[in-house]
Amino acid sequence: MSHGAGPFAIRGGHGHPGLIHRFLDHLPFEATDPIVSLQEGSTPLVLAERISERVGTEVLLKIEGANPTGSFKDRGMCCAVTAAKREGAETVICASTGNTAASAAAYAARGGLRCAVLVPDGKIAAGKLAQALMHGARVIALRGNFDEALELVRELTKAHPIALVNSVNRYRLEGQKTAAMELVEELGTLDALCIPVGNAGNITAYWKGFGEVGQAPRMLGFQAEGAAPLVLGHRVEAPETVASAIRIGNPARWEEAMSAMTQSAGAIEAVTDEEILDAYRFLAAHEGVFCEPASAASVAGLLKYGAPDARRVACVLTGHGLKDPQTAMEQSGSVVPCEPQLAAVEAAVLG
Ligand code: AN7
């Protein structure tokens, strides 16, 4: 199915369909397009019992880390890479805090395209770097931040026939809006959506998706305090946060995010690194859900600001916890060393 008409094409029956096939009626694609898919989307939506108790309302977690490369970017990337391939591009490029790079690299590999990624040197999580490299992307470590990287790839793609697959690419938003459609399919209605905001593509995409199925939950976007341009109302020149995925000071979808907030009677607020890490550990320890720090900003924001009047809230957990093993190890307990003898094991287990 994912390979269209190749000799080994799978014609249905193997697992769930990829996102483009599933939402074909809502997307600018035809079944005959050269669809590049890893069966992304259709992610779990789980009730967060402990967080529901703390907030006093029903809270559900949309587990986007369950996508093929471990983040929501796959929804947008299957569409952006399919469109690039349809247009005859041979190379795709992006600036990235990590997840976009990993996803672009994977979909480019699958589609037989070349991929280059510009990432801020030393500021992307280990898992994401490993993914981009394993999928064969050219990984360029920029001595600068994400905002500078995005500006540079925008310039570069004006002068070269290389497809830009950041969320300034409309196909990215088309793919990512399907997460909102899945929520509505499953829940019927919801009162509010909590979502981390970095470059502001995802909040824009969700708002578009909700609109297309006649829903308008409050959009509650959360930025890290050290990287909160939308909250401050001005660019942040040197963004800083433990949530490296959202270390962004000048979001490309600034206007769209603000209008999603205004139109939905929502809000965009800041959460501190400490609040992000508290939510990050709480989700892992008490809900059994391991997300990356940036993702936990959605839950941190809900715990901090609440969701007035809402009876049912969904929090988007945008990326998998395994993306960033270093932060996880810093934020968790240490291992218990043990000699290979029963008494020692007994003491270690029971002690
Ligand atoms: C886990 O990969 O910008 O507001 O270059 O990886 O749509 O930018 C990642 C963003 C939230 C913010 N959660 O989404 C990139 C990149 C995670 C992310 C966001 C990102 P946007």
Automatic annotation (TrEMBL):
<keyword id="KW-0791">Threonine biosynthesis</keyword>
<dbReference type="InterPro" id="IPR036052">
    <property type="entry name" value="TrpB-like_PALP_sf"/>
</dbReference>
<dbReference type="GO" id="GO:0006567">
    <property type="term" value="P:L-threonine catabolic process"/>
</dbReference>
<dbReference type="GO" id="GO:0009088">
    <property type="term" value="P:threonine biosynthetic process"/>
</dbReference>
<comment type="similarity">
    <text>Belongs to the threonine synthase family.</text>
</comment>
<dbReference type="InterPro" id="IPR001926">
    <property type="entry name" value="TrpB-like_PALP"/>
</dbReference>
<keyword id="KW-0663">Pyridoxal phosphate</keyword>
<comment type="pathway">
    <text>Amino-acid biosynthesis; L-threonine biosynthesis; L-threonine from L-aspartate: step 5/5.</text>
</comment>
<dbReference type="InterPro" id="IPR000634">
    <property type="entry name" value="Ser/Thr_deHydtase_PyrdxlP-BS"/>
</dbReference>
<dbReference type="GO" id="GO:0004794">
    <property type="term" value="F:threonine deaminase activity"/>
</dbReference>
<feature type="domain" description="Tryptophan synthase beta chain-like PALP">
    <location>
        <begin position="36"/>
        <end position="319"/>
    </location>
</feature>
<dbReference type="InterPro" id="IPR026260">
    <property type="entry name" value="Thr_Synthase_bac/arc"/>
</dbReference>
<protein>
    <recommendedName>
        <fullName>Threonine synthase</fullName>
        <ecNumber>4.2.3.1</ecNumber>
    </recommendedName>
</protein>
<feature type="binding site">
    <location>
        <position position="318"/>
    </location>
    <ligand>
        <name>pyridoxal 5'-phosphate</name>
    </ligand>
</feature>
<keyword id="KW-0456">Lyase</keyword>
<dbReference type="GO" id="GO:0030170">
    <property type="term" value="F:pyridoxal phosphate binding"/>
</dbReference>
<dbReference type="GO" id="GO:0003941">
    <property type="term" value="F:L-serine ammonia-lyase activity"/>
</dbReference>
<feature type="binding site">
    <location>
        <begin position="198"/>
        <end position="202"/>
    </location>
    <ligand>
        <name>pyridoxal 5'-phosphate</name>
    </ligand>
</feature>
<dbReference type="InterPro" id="IPR004450">
    <property type="entry name" value="Thr_synthase-like"/>
</dbReference>
<feature type="modified residue" description="N6-(pyridoxal phosphate)lysine">
    <location>
        <position position="73"/>
    </location>
</feature>
<feature type="binding site">
    <location>
        <position position="99"/>
    </location>
    <ligand>
        <name>pyridoxal 5'-phosphate</name>
    </ligand>
</feature>
<keyword id="KW-0028">Amino-acid biosynthesis</keyword>
<dbReference type="Pfam" id="PF00291">
    <property type="entry name" value="PALP"/>
</dbReference>
<dbReference type="GO" id="GO:0009097">
    <property type="term" value="P:isoleucine biosynthetic process"/>
</dbReference>
<dbReference type="InterPro" id="IPR050147">
    <property type="entry name" value="Ser/Thr_Dehydratase"/>
</dbReference>
<dbReference type="GO" id="GO:0004795">
    <property type="term" value="F:threonine synthase activity"/>
</dbReference>
<dbReference type="GO" id="GO:0006565">
    <property type="term" value="P:L-serine catabolic process"/>
</dbReference>
<comment type="function">
    <text>Catalyzes the gamma-elimination of phosphate from L-phosphohomoserine and the beta-addition of water to produce L-threonine.</text>
</comment>
